[in-house]
Structures are given as structure tokens and as C-alpha cells.
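Bug #77: duplicate submission created two jobs. Keeping one. Sequence:
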Amino acid sequence: MSPSEQPDEKVGYRSPPTHTRFKSKNCANPYGRKGKPKKVPPLNPGEVVATHFAQRIEIVNCGKRQQASSLEAALCVLRAKALKGDVPALRLYLSLAEKFDLAGTLATMAREAEAKEDRVLQDAARELMLLWAQPEGSCMFN
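Kept job's structure:
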């Protein structure tokens, strides 16, 4: 077709020829314009750290598989390094103990253990005294 055969068609700025226009029911941009990104609420760093420390992981402790939090696992690794002689790890481990006043807690636990040991030793001494007091040839465990 020549331009002279289509007298009503106006071709020019913002008026493309009809054969190059969009066909009806045909979207030229099927995915559309990109939308605005969704607003994400700001994260609280304390909550993020707490979430990570609370996650349960599997560790091997004394040859046994156990579930422990990430914080417990990190403290186990820190303790192991401190006991092997890593000076910075020892300093950090002791500063944590001092910060959370574990000296008082450990002293209480030591006193309880000593009391328990004393009771065990007293029971053993009592049993030995009973055995020594028995005449020879008689058995207490009949």
C-alpha cells in the first residue's frame, strides 16, 4: 500500500502506522512496571543476636551428640581454648566469669560439693567402723 491509497491515516508524531500499532488484547509489557520495594521494618540488632544465639545446633561433647544453643557451643569452644593455654581466650573466659559474678556461684557449688563429699566420707567411715567392730568370721552382708 502506498501512502496515497490511505488518505485518512495520519502518520507522524505519536501516530504510528496502523500495521505497527499494538494489537488489541495484546499487552506489550506483560510483567508491568516494577513496583516500589516493600518497606521492611528496621531490625533490632539485639533481637538478631539473641535469635542467633538461641538457635539449637548439634555438638559432640565427650563423644556424645547433644543439642545445645549456639551460645553454649561458643562458650564450650572458648573454655576448650582457654584450657589449652590460649591466653586471650583465658582472659575473655575469666572476664565473663567476673562479669556475671560466677565466683559467688562457684563458691556455693564448691561448698555444696564438699558437704556432699563429707557426707559420703562419713558414711564410708561409719561402714568401716562397723566392719572393724564385727568379730572375725562373721559377715555383715548376709
